Amino acid sequence: MNRYIRIGYVAPRLVGALLLYILIEVGAGIALRQSIIQGGQAAVGARVEVREVAVSLRHARATIEGLQLANPSRPMENLLEADRLELDFDGNSLLRRKAIVDHAVLRGARFGVPRETSGALDPSDKTTDTASFAPWITEGAKNAATAWAEKLGGDIEGRLQSTIDEFESPRLADELAERWPARYQALRDEADALRDEARRFRDELRVARENPLRYVDQLAAAPSRLRALTARLKQLQTDVASLPREIEADRQQIAVARRADESRLRASLAADQLDANSLTTQLLGDTVTQPIAEAISWLRWVRRMTPSTKATGNVTPASRGVDVQFLGLQQRPNLLIRALDIEGSATLAGRPVEMTGVLTGLTTEPSLHGEPMRLVLSTTGGAKLEVRATIDRSTPVPSETIHIDCPNFTVPRLELGPAAGLALRTDPSVGNLTVSLQTEGEALSGQMQLVQEQLQIEPALGPNASAFSARLAEAAAGRLGRLNRAATRVDLAGTLNTPKVTVWSSLGTGLAESLRGAAEGVISQERERLLAASSEDLAERLARFDAALRPLQEAVSGAVEGSGGDLKSLSSAVLAAGSGRGSLSFEKLGQQLPKAGSLFR
Amino acid sequence: MSDWYFAPLRATVAALVAHDSTRQIAVGVVLGAILGLLPKATLLAAIFAFALAAFRVNRAAGLASAGFFAMLTPWLDPLLHAVGFRVLAAPSLQSSFAWLYDLPLGPWMGFHNSVAMGSLLVGLYIAYPLYLAVRSLLDRVRPRLVSWVMKYRVARVLLGADVASRWGAL
């Protein structure tokens, strides 16, 4: 043996190898710590911190303590914090250059814990998860609901009164009261003028009759002048006779305007402008959408962290030559964690909970592993939650399935509307939440159902609430008291980056119906009261108008009658003059007169 | 620093004037040739390096041979790859290679690499001819070469420096 082998060389090397092994037992943790930090930061895209790593080659075990993974979207928050991670490797796999963990335990895991320093690798990088979620949870819906609440809580009486002040019917009544006296005055003036004209005609006729030769022209024109005066009288009488019909037509116009005013008043304060969906959003927005938004964000993160890997070909390029994959050889991933037990704590619905779960099939090469990654997570304590997720990267099209059950959790107290005025307050209620999400490639589908029990909604009055708001709150209290159960369903569609949400909820609908009913009742009462007052005011205006019109009517009638009498006697005089009952008739006078030319010879 | 520059020359001189037999020198050259051809980040290379150091062969000749063949690899790699890939891709050998690869430390050996396999095969193929060639060459030229080298002061200096450096290390 000694002839071929240098024992003096081999023996020290063997001792050296033993020392090296001991050194590795002690110092491998330092190297592994560095590789975890560098590899983790490359994978997560944010700072990864590890307090201590211990490695045991003999037991093929690694223990990582004080693990912190910063959130790349929110650098001042840790995506994951864990007190301790224990990894039990398969020794045979390590000899085959594969890091396969048979069993791992993650203890003291916490999610979303704030950091003291930024976890961003590059402080200038402000990358955040900006993918839109859904228009349903935008501020618009909240504003709509708040605006409605403010509208109800505002000066309804004042707005009713201002609407009444803009009524058309009183304006028409006032216009009538101004127009008709003027009209009567004009008729009266016409009657007086006619009478004066008749009297003047009579006097002129009398003078002409006394000296017919001198006033022969006037006497000849007398009949036509009389006919003109008679025609004016007839027109005046016709006008006076049509007055009642015109007055009635104006009254009808006022009645029509009155009806239009009433319709406008009812339309202007109709309580059907509250969108049930806006109310649902305001009352359940965060409660309903937060789990979905978190689940989708988580899915996006998982999609980034675990991209699909294609099965490697038979030949892989190497620094020199190529590495050949032999046919018939079962390929295994370079890193595989068969089962990872998770123990930790979290905050759910504002309550601390204990969390346990198992993650299986976590690997860097899912296509080689051939099985999907599965996560089962449940909580105990303040709130119960069960999450079952399947992440499949073994096929060319990545897919995920998430199912979340959250029974009997507390939906927190919520308030809708201005606190100083009229607001709606929901007491904490018991909710049962079920979320089911599926993704296939980029396509997203799923449904969320929330059933709320022991629901209590009551109106709340702030210090600036008006008397009307108080009446509304009183009317709404009874109706809202009957709303003690609500079901909400959210349908998800679209893609991971642009999910589309369709919401249906019995809460928003019921609440809107209750509030609308209460508001309609109160507004209707107030409206009818003000309408009655307005009607009374209009009736008074019309009565005053009638009273003012009556003497005018009598005066005009008297003036017309007087004019008629004068014209009648004038007509008799003219006829008498024409028939010769006077000293000289017009015809006789004409016949007795010599030829026109002889008189002035 | 000077030790680093003169080490190859000193190794050559030491290999020639050492008391090792020509057989030991030839085996050292063969082991060094295979080691020089092999990719170094494999367990195969480590095994050959350990063999070169552990067996009673001329280490200086082995290291010189390894350096020489390592310098040739840029030109030899296409040939080594072609040979290795042809063997690794042979359908009839797939199950055997798969079994070997699946053994503990199989992937660390590196034989699934085409250049490593080609280097191993070419190295083994030239091993015996190289052994014979080196041995016959040494048998013929070594006595004359030793006497010729020892005539020069520089050779003695190199050997003395080698001894001195060993003592210095102690």
Number of strands of chain A: 18
Question: N- to C-terminal separation of chain B?
Answer: 18 Å
Helix content of chain B: over 70%
Could you give a short account of the major beta sheet of chain A? 13 strands, mixed
Strand content of chain A is 25-35%
Share of helix among residues of chain A? 40-55%
The largest pleated sheet of chain B is described as: none
Contiguous uncertain segments of 5+ residues of chain B: none
The sequence of SSEs of chain A as H and E is: HEEEHEHHHHHEEEEHEEEEEEEEHEEHH
| Neighbour order of strands in the largest sheet of chain A | 1-2-3-4-7-8-9-10-11-14-15-17-18
User: What is the mean predicted local confidence, pLDDT of chain A?
Assistant: 78
What class, by secondary structure content of chain B?
mainly alpha
CA-CA gap between termini of chain A? 194 Å
